[in-house]
Amino acid sequence: xxxxxxxxxxxxxxxxxxxxxxxxQVQTVDNDGNQQxxxxxxxxxxxxxxxxxxxxxxxxxxxxxxxxxxxxxxxAVKFSDNVKEETTxxxxxxxxxxxxxxVCVLFLAVLIIGGVITIWYFYEEPELEADIGHTYRLxxxxxxxxxxxxxGKQILDGRVGVHLPDxxxxxxCGSKNTICLEWKTFAKIHITSTxxxxxxxxxxxWETYKPTFAPEDCFNMLPGHWYGGAEMDTQDWPLEKxxxxxxxxxxxxxxxxxxxxxxxxxxxxxxxxGVAVIIDDNVPLHVGTSxxxxxxxxxxxxxPFPNPNSAQxxxxxxxxxxxxxxxxxxxxxxxxxxxxxTTKSVPDTTQMQLPRWVTxxxxxxxxxxxxxxxxxxxxxxxSLAHGVxxxxxxxxxxxxxxxxxxxxxxxxxxxxxxxxxxxFKVSLWAHPFAxxxxxxxxxxxxxxxxxNSAKGNAPGIVKWWNGYGTVIDVTSxxxxxxxxxxxxxxxxxxxCDGVYFDGGEVSYLPAGFVTESEPVVPDEYATMYVSExxxxxxxSTQVSVGYKTQDVPMFVRMTERRSTWGDRRGLKxxxxxxxxxxxxxxxFVNPGPVGGSSEDMPDPELYVRWMELAIFLPVIEFSxxxxxxxxxxxxxxxxxxxxxxxVVIAPTIKLARxxxxxxxxxxxxxxxLAPKDNIAHVVDSEFLIGNTTLVAPILAPSTxxxxxxxxxxxxxxxxxxxxxxxxxxxxxxxxxVNLYEIAYFTRVDTEA
Length: 752
Known about the structure:
22% of the residues lie in helices and 24% in strands. With 752 residues, it is an alpha+beta fold. The longest helix has 32 residues, at 91-122. Keywords: Glycosidase, Hydrolase, Membrane, Transmembrane, Transmembrane helix. Residues 368-644 form the Glycoside hydrolase family 31 TIM barrel domain.
C-alpha cells in the first residue's frame, strides 16, 4: 500500500569495530523502495591509553587542543610518532607543563563525562510511527493516531488502547500493507486500509489476551462536529455539546433510564470533517462522551451482552473518509446501513396527509366507549381534519390480553363501526408484554413462548411501565406465529385498520435473559420485533424502536416527549431527534402528540409553538385537543392544518417515495445543502424538508424574535410575509415571529 512504512534498525558497522562511535538508524521504506534514515548517535569517547595509564594523543588531538604544548625528552608525553621532536626542556620547566597537561586532561574528561550525562538525561529516543494508506498514522509509544484527508488536512485524531500501560513498549508485527502492534500479554491491534472511488476506509481490529483488559479507543471530536448514534434523553446536535457517562450501547426506555441510549439507535457516528465511524455488530459496545471526546469500549462483564463462550472482548470498527460529511454519509447509506427493497411501498400516505388522533395521554387509561365516541365527535364537530384514531392504553381486560374490556366497551364492534362512519381509520396500541395476572401469560407459559430468566427454566418477570410481566420470545418462530395470530385476530374481530407496536427495548429484557435462539447482541430483539412481527401488519403500522430495521418502511415514533420547553425530551429536543433519526436511516418520523405526552394539560403557549413545528414534520399527531384551550386555538389549528396541506404534504409524500431509492431523510440538517458551511454544521433549531423548504420555529417561551441562518450557496424566499428573497450564507438577526406565526423559507434559485 502506498505510503506504508516498516521499521528497520541498523546496528553498529562491523567494519568499524575499532571505533566506539555507534550509530543506529530508524529506516522507513515506501513502495518505491526509497529509504529515509533518521540517525540517532550514541557517543562513547575514543580514549586509548598507554601501558603506564597515560592517555596517548594523536595528531588530530594536537590540532584540536590549543591548551597543550607538545614537548619531548625523558619527561615528555608522547602523543604520536609523527610529532616532530624538539629540544629537551629543563627539569624546572617540564614539571609545571606536565602539571598543566594533567589539569587540561582532567578538565576535558570532566567536560566529556558531564556532556554524556547531560545528553543521556535529556535525550529521548525518537518515537517510531507507522503509516498506512494515504492518511492514517499511528505513533507506537504514545498510541496516538491521526487521520488526514486526501488533501493532507488532519480531520481526526485520538488515542487507541487507552488502558494499555504506558511502560510497555509494543512489538512490531505488521507488514507492508498492515499496521500491527502487539503489547505482550495484553492485546494486539491490526489496521488495514481499503481505497474505493468515493471513500477510503481503515479497518481497526483488536485482539485481546487478558480477560480483565477492555480495549478502548477515543476520538477527539473537535474541530469537527458529530452526529448519529442514538436517540437520547438530551438530544445534543452536534454530539460534542454534551457529556455522557460510558454505558452499554443498547436500546432503553429513556423515560425510565434517561442516562442510557434510546429506542432508536445504530452503531454509526458521523463527523462534519468527512469521517464515519462504523462499529461491528458483534462488539460488546459501550459508548461515552466527555471533554469533547467520543470513546468506544468493548466489555462483557456486568453488561447486557451475552458471552456464552467466555470470549475475550473485541473492539472492531471502521473509519471511512470522504470528501465531506454528505459524501461519506452517502457511502454509509449505500453500503453499510440496511436498505429498503424498492419493491416495498411507502408507509400509509393517509398518515402524512391527515392528523393522527390518539387517546393517550388526553383520555389516559380510563377510556371507555363514551369517552372515545365523544373525542371523535368533537374532532368532527370542530371541523378538524382526521385520519387515524388510535385507541391506546387501557382498552384490554388485562395488560397482554388480546381483547376489549367488556365493562368499559360492551360493544367494541359497534363503537369501531361508528368511528369508521365518521371517516376514521382505527388503530390499536400493542406491546410485547403480558402481565402475570393475564390469561395470555398463562397460555404463553404453557406453550413456552416467553423470554426466560437467566437460569432458563422459567419466564423472566420484568417491571415495565404498567406493572410486572414477561415478554414474547421473538427469536422463536412458534412464539412469533402465535403472537402474530392473536394480534391479527384482535384487529379482524373488531374491524381495526392498524396497530402501533410499543416497547421492544433491551432494557425490558430480564437480566441474563435466555431465548430460543441466542442473539449476537441484545438489540437483535428489537430488530426481530420490528422485522418479524410489526412488518406483518402492513403500511399503517407504527413502532417505537429501531435497530438495523432501516429496510422496513414504517413510521417510527419518538420516545414520548415531556410537556416542557427544554431539551430533555421537551420541545427543543424535537428537531435534533428528528435529524438524528433521519441520519440513522429512519425517514418516517412521528414526533408524538402536539404539546408532549405529559398527563397534565400543557401550557397554551407551548402548545401553539409545538403545533407550529409539528405541521412541517412527516406526521402530525394530536392527543390534547385544541378545543380544550378555547375557540381561538381551534381556529389556529384549522389554519395550521391548511398551511400543511398547501406547503408540506405534497413534497413530503414525494420525498417519502424517493427515500426508498436513495435512503435520504425527509427531514434534513442545514449542512445537507452546504456540507462545508461551518455554521450550518451546528444549527439545531432549524431544518430542511428535502432541499427546498427551510423551517425555523420559535422554541422558547415569551419570545417573538429569533436569529435564522440561511445556508450558503442559495437564495431563500420568505414564506411568512412579503415574499422577500435573501441570499444564503447569512444570519437574519432578530427575525420577528409572532405567537401564531412560524418562519419558513423556500429555495428559489434551483429545482429540488
